[in-house]
UniProtKB/TrEMBL annotation, chains A, B:
Keyword Hydrolase attached: no
TM region(s), chain numbering: none
Chain ranges of the HTH merR-type domain: 1-70
Annotated PANTHER family: HTH MERR-TYPE DOMAIN-CONTAINING PROTEIN, REDOX-CYCLING DRUG-SENSING TRANSCRIPTIONAL ACTIVATOR SOXR
The keyword DNA-binding appears for this protein: yes
Pfam families linked to this entry: MerR_1
Name of the featured protein: MerR family transcriptional regulator
Amino acid sequence: MLTISQLAATAGVTVRTVRHYHHVGLLPEPERDASGYRRYSAQAVVDLIRIRTLADAGVPLARIDALLHAQPAEFAAAVTDIDAELQRKIDQLTEHRRRIAELASGEALVLPPEVVANLNRMRSLGVSERAVRIERDVWILMQALEPHSMPQGIRDKTASFDDPGTTRLYLAIGQSLDWDPHDPRVDRLIDDLDAWETEHERDSSRPRNMASQLVFSRIVEASPAWQRILDVLAHRARQRRTAGHDG
Amino acid sequence: MLTISQLAATAGVTVRTVRHYHHVGLLPEPERDASGYRRYSAQAVVDLIRIRTLADAGVPLARIDALLHAQPAEFAAAVTDIDAELQRKIDQLTEHRRRIAELASGEALVLPPEVVANLNRMRSLGVSERAVRIERDVWILMQALEPHSMPQGIRDKTASFDDPGTTRLYLAIGQSLDWDPHDPRVDRLIDDLDAWETEHERDSSRPRNMASQLVFSRIVEASPAWQRILDVLAHRARQRRTAGHDG
DNA sequence: TCCAACCCTGACGTAGGGTCAGGGTCAAGC
DNA sequence: GCTTGACCCTGACCCTACGTCAGGGTTGGA
């Protein structure tokens, strides 16, 4: 007659494991001695070894009991099934490895390298880190919500760095985040942005879809000055459009 | 301002997932509206997308927060670490697959094919299924406790089938399990076994190690007749040994 | 006004045990 | 006879990353 620790040592498992198998009904509870200690027979050793053989092969505990009493045909079917499950898990982990290998750094988390390059270009122009962070988040939202418009967006953005007027605007935009909404520099920036929109045929008053709404929210949340800037720009654009219809 | 289900849908996760991230502190709890509903900003969308990007790559939730704020060097180190962990899991599952592929049927669970072959040979001799089951368990115990003595044991067993006297004994042994301990056939079987031991120079009275103790237990547990048989055989062997010393 | 579709908190379940907490038992040495 | 260390017991909480009720309040459209 063996104690629980002797049984466990013989089968190469922990005492806790044996008790767990009792708990889930995989190994029957043996008789107790006068002290209430469990006393095991040699049969229990054999049972436990057979259980561990399956468990060590990755068979879920819940299926082991059936497997131990299965006919060869059922057994083979169950083994095939469990093997497929293991393969599925392996595939998933392999996919995880593939993805994680792509995670070069924090910024490249979601974004294609062209975008990361553009962000670094903004940094080297002297645009503040805070503004770059907002720009990054805007691209993350684009990527998640309108991935199809990413290629065009990337091309436009990359091309814009060739225009000195536009790059000067980027610098001013970066600084403006911290300005008071009624700072006179805000008004001058609004005029510059308005002129830029007219020149590049953009219209900040057109109805916004999900993606651009979130983009606007992200910017407005970050800067009171920009709440005013975007409001005024949209207002002016609406006026221009109305005037265009009238004329 | 988004509701929790809008946020979840935007980031491609379930509402439960968002709440879980709040619970573990990965995503900050947002302000509530008058009804107590959570209201999310665009920033939350960005945060959640960044979290999911790492989670989808197999990064444990507990490590994501640190990773989101890590410098490139730390980030690279952490990614290497996590990748190694994923590889470890893959290796383990692959080992499981290898093992499970070896599990041809219930009996071959632990045992080498030669043993399985011998068990089937016993069946074809007409040995009862119950006796074969005990024999199987004896081999399982041997395998687990004294694997080094398996080859010799297998050779002896395999050779024994060439001896008609021994195979006849196997048959009698199989039938004897169910006999009453005081059945006269038990006495005749004891005589036969005693003669066999003498002939083959075995000694069932020698001190037993762990493995043979368990083997004896397994047999005695299964059959009262065999409790007596083993007792008497050991007694006689002891007597023979004493006589040998005296003479 | 009603109904579906939301939202809330709280709690249990998953697989396979690890790790206390709190208390009883046994065997050996002094 | 007493102590000490090694066992044994039950019960309960911990881990991952959420899924899935249960029970109840809110919102918005027909």
